[in-house]
C-alpha cells in the first residue's frame, strides 16, 4: 500500500478541520432546532418582547449566532426571514429600516469573523498545512480573491460567514476584504429585503405543492449562477494574464 504524499496528508487535514467545524455548527443548529429556536415566529415573538430595543437585540443575537453557526447555510436565511416577519409585518418598519438593521448585523458579523481568522486562525492553519503551503494559498487568495470571494458572497449556496473566517486567516488585505463584504454581502442583503418578493411566496416558504413552481425558480437560479461564474472565469483569465505580465516585468527589471 502506497504511503500518502505530504500534500495529500495536508489536504486531508484541512478537509478534516473544515468538516469538524461544520459538524460543530450543525450540532449547535440541531440543538437549537430541537428546542424550536430556529422557528422564525418564535424568534420574532421573543425579539418583539424587547420593544424599542428589538433591533439592537436582533443585531447582537445575529452576530453571536454567526460565530457559532458560521457553516450553517440556513442561519443567514432564518435571520433575514425573522427581520421581515418582525420589523415589517409586526412592527411596521419600512424596507429601508429593515435593510439598515440587517446590513449592520451582516457587516459586524463578517468583520468579526475576518478578525477571528486573521488573529486566531492563522497559526492553526499553518500547523495543519505547513507554512509553505499556507504562503502559496495566501498568495492565491491575494491574487484571485478580487474575483472569487465576491462571487461566493453573491450566491446563497456558499457559507458566507465561514468564507469571511477563511479569508481573514489567509491574510487577504483587510480593506480589500472589507469592501468586498460591504458591497457584495450588502447587495445580497438588499436583494433579499427589496426583491425577494419576486420569488413566489409558496416557494419562499416551501408551502407550494406544485412541483413546477420549484422547477421554474431553480432553473432561473441555475442560469444566473452559470452567468456569474462565466463572468468570474473571464475576469480570472484576464487577471492571471495581468499578473503574469507584471511579474515578468519585475523579473526583467531585477535582472
Secondary structure layout:
Layout: H1 6-34, H2 40-48, H3 54-68, H4 73-90, H5 95-129, H6 131-154, H7 160-169, H8 174-195, H9 201-204, H10 211-254
Helix pairs in contact: 2-4, 3-4, 3-5, 4-5, 5-6, 5-7, 5-8, 6-8, 6-10, 7-8
Can you characterise this structure?
With 255 residues, the chain is an all-alpha fold. Helix content is 82%, strand content 0%. It contains ten helices and no strands. It has helices spanning 6-34, 40-48, 54-68, 73-90, 95-129, 131-154, 160-169, 174-195, 201-204, 211-254. It is globular and about 70 Å long. The model has no long low-confidence stretch (mean pLDDT 75).
Which features does this protein show?
single chain, 255 residues, mainly alpha, 10 helices, 82% helix, globular
C-alpha geometry? globular
Could you give the order of the helices and strands? HHHHHHHHHH
Radius of gyration: 21 Å
Mean pLDDT: 75
Tell me about the largest β-sheet: none
| Proportion of residues in β-strands | under 5%
Uncertain stretches of 5 or more adjacent residues: none
Number of helices: 10
What is this entry, summarized?
The protein contains 10 helices and no strands. The protein has helices spanning 6-34, 40-48, 54-68, 73-90, 95-129, 131-154, 160-169, 174-195, 201-204, 211-254.
